[in-house]
């Protein structure tokens, strides 16, 4: 079933790709387009063009900083490259906006060149038409894009099947009525005979086609409903094949690369995105072959080297000339974890605010299987997996079980600030000695906290 679903999804992605690439052939001059790519790869975790996300909307930002801060493009270059250094230098406007956004840290981008930044600014000044949003990126937009079409197609299949079945029923009813009528009129007995005969002849002729049709419709309906159920369902162990054989064991395990180096947006919000190919290139510009000691049984150096080549194909990097050719190919990772649309799950709540609480509680419950990184409490020992698979069932019961049993760390900076009043109230409500404040006490069992 799961592999079927996988192919179904891949087909949808393929169709989606076909449809959306047609929209991407655009008569724009090069720079804003490259800017768009860079923007999507590096900035969309926190910025949109038209609305505030974590940072301010960036459409027309060049003009805006001029009017609001009296600063120019060179300021923007410094800010985007290293806003921390700019703030530390005492720059007035930089510190002003930092205060204005509650001291939310923007990332630093030392690897963006001056031209890259000019391209991004060109994009924010002159963004192409909105359809461009659907363009698949080398940024591994993951399957988030495929999720909604999948949903829609399934719904469509269900609706069409139901309509067809309804039509069939009406047709049978009409036929039955005609038969009854015929049987009632005695005068027409003779005629009836021939009619009934001709009806049975028709039946003889067509019943196979009819039954075939009903069978097909029934299959479609079952498939639609099954898929719909599976969409809300449980995928523990789900482990699809990916376009590049990327091993977490080799990266996070053998080479001890920090999860958040690649999944950097986990800290800042709702999603913890799959890294863009630019992130891979930070290292793979120089690591073009595999020389590690570790080999997964059945794999060899040639295999790993071939997989690394795929990064170059995707980003259009020519390792011989050490330059980009400009020919890129999107890499569509298949999304493994995917909550239904009606669930709200926020990584930063767990990875930042809940980090210590979750690690402590997990280690208390699993003294022989301790974790060092918060991610592993929910995703399992990803650093030992060559292929990621879901380590928990990610059901409502699973969320709630942890909320009931995990003691909140009321002393971390985040909770001190956000739950100041609540904390005082809870202190009174729960006895001081031994009284535990678990996540349910701060609202972790309220339906509205997890459901839209
Ligand atoms: C992790 C979140 C995050 C990422 C990623 C991020 N930013 Fe920001 N950005 C912010 C925040 C938050 C602010 C508001 C100032 C502050 O709190 O530091 C900001 C402010 C800015 C400003 C100043 C806007 C103004 O109105 O004065 C610019 C320009 C900017 N970002 C550009 C970028 C670009 C370009 C990228 C991608 C290369 C990017 N940012 C990536 C969070 C982010
Ligand atoms: C070098 C970059 C890199 C590092 C480091 C890394 N990841 Fe990943 N991660 C990826 C890529 C690429 C994918 C998508 C391909 C795949 O599923 O293997 C991914 C996928 C995942 C997924 C599945 C996402 C989905 O589709 O639902 C999880 C969960 C995950 N990583 C967690 C972690 C954790 C936890 C760590 C640290 C122990 C970590 N990653 C370290 C690059 C990285
Ligand atoms: C922080 C540096 C770093 C980043 C970022 C990084 N890699 Fe790697 N990658 C490595 C190292 C180190 C090796 C092992 C090389 C060796 O041992 O010779 C490796 C090996 C590989 C291999 C061969 C082994 C395997 O996992 O199959 C592939 C394929 C690969 N990387 C893909 C990627 C992709 C795709 C990304 C981006 C999502 C990425 N890497 C990001 C450092 C990195
Ligand atoms: C409290 C449990 C929990 C913790 C801790 C956690 N995750 Fe997740 N993670 C989830 C859930 C639930 C989803 C599915 C979210 C969805 O589908 O909306 C998810 C999804 C993901 C994805 C797929 C993309 C996405 O956002 O849907 C990645 C990648 C990921 N997590 C990486 C990480 C990394 C890296 C860490 C540690 C820094 C981490 N997670 C910590 C529960 C957790
Ligand atoms: C491993 C334990 C663990 C799991 C599993 C877990 N959570 Fe949490 N969650 C926490 C902790 C700890 C906090 C409190 C963070 C803090 O200190 O503010 C929290 C807080 C929350 C909050 C904020 C509650 C509030 O009142 O502000 C929401 C919403 C939430 N979690 C949703 C979810 C959802 C949805 C899932 C399942 C997909 C989930 N959590 C799974 C540990 C967990
Ligand atoms: C801590 C987070 C959390 C809280 C609190 C929570 N839910 Fe859920 N709920 C979820 C998650 C996650 C799912 C998706 C489960 C899945 O995909 O298997 C879900 C699924 C559901 C479903 C769909 C049926 C199912 O099991 O898939 C219903 C209905 C529902 N929740 C109702 C409620 C109601 C009513 C409340 C309040 C009493 C509530 N939920 C509180 C996280 C939560």
From TrEMBL:
Residues 137-147 have a biased composition (Low complexity). The chain crosses the membrane at residues 157-174, 213-234. GO terms for molecular function: electron transfer activity; heme binding; metal ion binding; oxidoreductase activity. It comes from the Bacteria. Residues 124-147 are annotated as: Disordered. Residues 1-25 form the signal peptide. Its EC number is 1.97.-.-. The keyword Cytoplasm does not apply. It is an enzyme of class 1 (oxidoreductase). Keywords: Heme, Iron, Membrane, Metal-binding, Oxidoreductase, Signal, Transmembrane, Transmembrane helix. Residues 30-128 form the Cytochrome c domain. This is Menaquinone reductase, multiheme cytochrome c subunit. It comes from Chryseobacterium potabilaquae.
């Amino acid at each position: 079933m799961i592999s079927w679903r996988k192919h179904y999804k891949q087909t949808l992605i393929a169709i989606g790709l076909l449809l959306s690439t047609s929209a991407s052939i655009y008569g724009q001059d090069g720079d804003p387009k490259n800017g768009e790519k860079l923007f999507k790869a590096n900035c969309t975790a926190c910025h949109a063009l038209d609305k505030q996300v974590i940072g301010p909307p960036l459409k027309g930002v060049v003009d805006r900083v001029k009017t609001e801060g009296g600063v120019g493009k060179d300021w923007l270059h410094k800010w985007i490259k290293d806003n921390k250094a700019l703030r530390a230098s005492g720059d007035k406007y930089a510190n002003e906006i930092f205060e204005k956004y509650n001291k939310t840290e923007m990332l630093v981008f030392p690897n963006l060149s001056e031209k890259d930044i000019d391209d991004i600014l060109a994009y924010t000044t002159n963004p192409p038409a909105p359809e461009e949003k659907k363009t698949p990126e080398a940024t591994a937009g993951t399957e988030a894009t495929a999720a909604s079409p999948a949903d829609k197609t399934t719904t469509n299949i269900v609706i069409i099947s139901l309509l067809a079945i309804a039509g069939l029923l009406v047709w049978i009813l009409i036929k039955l009525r005609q038969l009854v009528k015929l049987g009632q009129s005695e005068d027409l007995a003779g005629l009836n005979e021939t009619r009934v005969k001709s009806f049975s002849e028709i039946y003889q002729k067509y019943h196979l086609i009819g039954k075939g049709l009903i069978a097909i419709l029934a299959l479609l309906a079952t498939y639609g409903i099954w898929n719909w159920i599976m969409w809300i369902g449980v995928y523990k162990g789900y482990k699809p094949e990916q376009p590049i054989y990327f091993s977490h064991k080799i990266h996070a395990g053998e080479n001890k690369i920090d999860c958040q180096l690649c999944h950097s947006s986990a800290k800042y919000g709702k999603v913890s995105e799959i890294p863009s190919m630019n992130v891979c290139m930070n290292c793979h510009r120089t690591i073009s072959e595999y020389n590690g000691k570790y080999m997964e049984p059945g794999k060899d150096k040639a295999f790993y080297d071939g997989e690394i080549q795929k990064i170059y194909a995707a980003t259009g990097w020519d390792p011989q000339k050490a330059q980009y050719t400009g020919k890129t190919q999107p890499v569509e990772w298949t999304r493994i974890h995917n909550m239904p649309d009606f669930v709200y799950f926020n990584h930063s709540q767990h990875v930042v605010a809940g980090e210590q609480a979750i690690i402590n509680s997990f280690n208390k419950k699993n003294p022989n299987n301790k974790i060092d990184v918060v991610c592993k409490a929910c995703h399992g020992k990803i650093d030992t997996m060559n292929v990621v698979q879901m380590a928990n069932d990610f059901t409502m019961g699973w969320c709630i079980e942890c909320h009931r049993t995990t003691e909140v760390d009321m002393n971390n900076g985040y909770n001190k600030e956000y739950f100041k009043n609540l904390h005082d109230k809870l202190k009174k409500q729960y006895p001081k000695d031994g009284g535990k404040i678990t996540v349910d006490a701060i609202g972790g069992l309220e339906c509205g906290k997890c459901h839209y």
